[in-house]
Amino acid sequence: MTTVVPTSEEDAALSVVRFASELAWADAGPEVAEPQVSRLCLEGEEFIAMGKWLELASLMITSAELIFSKVSEKDVESIFTIICNLVTKTENPDEVMEIVKVITAKLVQQPNEKPAVRLKILINFYNLLETPYCQFYVYMKALNLAVDGKVTQYIIPSFKKIDSFLKEWKIGTPEQRELFLTISNVLKENKSMSKDSFKFLTNYLATFSGEEAHVLSEAKEEAVRAIVDFVKAPDVFQCDLLDMPAVGQLENDAKYALLYQLLKIFLTQRLDEYLEYHTANSTLLNDYGLVHEECIAKMRLMSLVDLSSDGSGQIPYELIRDTLQINDDEVELLVFKAITAKLIDCKMDQMNQVVLVSHHTDRVFGQHQWQTLRTKLVTWRENISNVISTIQANKVSEDGSQAAQGLVVH
Fold it and tell me: Which residue range or ranges hold the PCI domain (predicted)?
């Protein structure tokens, strides 16, 4: 089959037009095909001469699916490199956006036909663009294509750069919601990335702060999912779901109030409260796929964190045993698990049967925690200032002494 071999920028576009036209009319016979190919090439020449880049893009992309089905992957990439390059021909941002829409629409039309190649083309297309919103638009098309074509492994690494992308794109709240929720859903399919999935889901829910009730209701199902995901996650012990209006709306919801109560127990109460809740709501837990034994294991760790926050810095083994409802020989094992999970920093005084806590992780990081952190920072700054003042004062005193010693009476 013929391969596109461009000899100049203008010839490259016309070569693609000719190649795609010949491909489209290949079965019609020379008598029919040649006039049609000539007509389409003439149109292409006219569009180039008049600077009608959108019309040229539409012409070049018409036979996109034929190109994907009948051309080698290497040639497909070459052809689309030429097509995508049309966005660099115009300085009109509206025209660039229209060209982007025309090209991406074709690329995502059949996601199961060479999906990895389509995704690569979209990523290369993204790198050609200078308009932030166009970049976001192409990224979302690439993200959805990766999902539909089951090639998400190629786009997941880019999720680490989302914060910097957001600064560049400067997109609005609706677009952020779409982005965060799509990423969360992608990561949810990969069990090893459930923690990251939860992070993007909470980012999504956070965008609903300050919204009216009818808007909040749009996030109700995702709020439910966030609660279930948090309770299930064996390695997530801190979140700010309770401070989010999207989650708070569930507190008085006839259908989900009990689930909200469960979240509150996990973030503010201890094991005994959970056991009492389970006795009354075991069916609800089963309905959401929550395993009682796993919930107990997590609540024991959460309860130990709560004991660590009491302020004394010392937790008797006996109190840990009674609060976590475990045997004496399990106390140190639970403390070790909490240390491994980075929930507490502590030392175990086996002689005096106490745990000496130097630091703990708050289950909830809300307004109170921010205020506490601010107070600590102010105190730290004052202490540093005092140290600097003392050093400066000592230096002045020392310099004065040395000067006095240097005076000689003749």
Answer: 196-362
Q: What is the pTM of this model?
A: 0.81
Q: Per residue, what are the HEC states of 277-342?
A: HHHHHHHHHHHCCCCHHHHHHHHHHHHHHHHHCCCCCEEEHHHHHHHHCCCHHHHHHHHHHHHHCC
Strands of the 344-349 sheet, one edge to the other? 314-316, 354-360, 344-349
φ, ψ of residue 343 in degrees (nearest 5): -85, -30
CATH class (in words) of the domain with range 294-376:
mainly alpha
Strands 344-349 and 354-360: antiparallel
Compute φ and ψ for 355, nearest 5 degrees: -105, 125
Domain boundaries, the chain: 8-29+39-83, 172-268, 294-376
Residues linked to residue 344 through DSSP beta bridges, in sequence order: 360
